[in-house]
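Suppose you are handed only these lines of text.
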Amino acid sequence: MMIFYTHWSCFLQKLYHQFWHAIFIIMVNDILARQTAMIFKCFLLMYYKNSRGRNYRKQGQMLTLVEYLLLLYRALLPAPVWYRFFLNKEYGSLFSSLMTGLYLTFKLTSVVEKVQYFFASIKALSRKEVHYGAYATLEQVVSAAGDLCAICQEKMHAPILLRCKHIFCEDCVSEWFERERTCPLCRALVKPADLRSFGDGSTSLFFQLF
Ligand SMILES: [Zn+2]
Ligand SMILES: [Zn+2]
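From them, the structure of the protein bound to zinc ion can be written out as follows.
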């Protein structure tokens, strides 16, 4: 009985140690991946700042794309660590293969979801038309509120006609739709529920531990 007891507590101690070791490795990897993505996003912002004609929509789409790639990569990062942890034969092979199977199933569903998000963000990048309105013709701009944009109070640049018939510059309104889904003037719901945008350069704050 005594021998069994010491063996058991020794095993638990080892398990505890291995668990925190795995958590530590994963957290370091997670931080490194995020730092790399942050540097990359800074380069993107610098590139779009220097390019002629501020292109807020493209910039936002690129930042969103990078963020989804990062989320996918971060979902994959802990998988080998936990795979090794669960496949430890000391737990008994039945328990170990059960845990490995459960973990891989859980991981696969989350990775498939992230792959879908990633491809959706690529598709959004290649989409030419704006999904909350269409480019306005010159007559539409003139017959509306003159050719001044209500957001920037300047002459319209690449005017976009929203579904509610209000017109704004493309850059102004795409910046607005990073945060809102309604028209800035009449509050009509314009933007459909869509892929979550990380166009302002924001990032998910959670640690991806499992
Ligand atoms: Zn404007
Ligand atoms: Zn409106």
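What can we learn from it? The radius of gyration is 25 Å. The chain has a mean pLDDT of 85.
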